[in-house]
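# step 3/5: fold
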Amino acid sequence: MAHKTDRSVRRDGVPSQRQLRVGEVLRKAMVEILERVELRDPDIAGVSITVSEVSISPDLKTAMVFVMPLGGGAREAVIAGLARAAPFLRGQIARRIQLRHVPRLMFSIDTAFDSSAYMNSLLRTLDTPEEHLSEDSADTSTTGELAGESDDGA
């Protein structure tokens, strides 16, 4: 008996090419909408919002939109405002792209910006190789002088 398989669901958890393509089309549409359409919600009116990624479910019915307000402030208010504006945004997306079903939109703060800032701060705290070289040469010169003194005394 042959089983019908769903090609959009992969066992390794890696998104299919269709998921990636639809996610990128949705991301571009969201960017265009947020740039050109004035949203009336007080929490997102006049706020510049970066849409960094759109991750879509294997059945293409739900999209997780990762956003970050410019400057990083008022994150929770922006997410709440976008959630309230989701039906309007979904309608705007339907006017811009051709899909059988426009996915339900869910919003989340993109933590990649915070992670990269944290990694940069960690890298800045590490010593540079030049400092290690200067410390190593200072240690050998001191050790050499001590070794030379002990040889003269013997």
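# step 4/5: annotate
Residues 1-8 have pLDDT under 50 and may be disordered.
# step 5/5: archive (pending)
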